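Changelog-adjacent note: as of this version, every example in the card shows the full chain rather than a window. The one below runs 74 residues end to end.
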Amino acid sequence: MKMLEEMQDEIRKLKAMIVKHEKRIRVLEAKAGEDGTDKGASLPPLPVSQPPPAITVNNNSGSHTAEEMAPDEV
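Full-length structure tokens:
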């Protein structure tokens, strides 16, 4: 019973925090709109990441290549 009450109390606190954050977001969005500029529009585009280089595995047994191995075996 006590654990249930503790969980309900925690849920109430989290809900209150969500409401507080939503209000803060609305205020910040309103401020950004009052400036007349869209802050996000002036940011440079994010760089496109390149795929990681191929992994070469040198194993002396020669039984598996890197492509044949599971990720935890490399």
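Structural remarks: The helical segments are 2-34.
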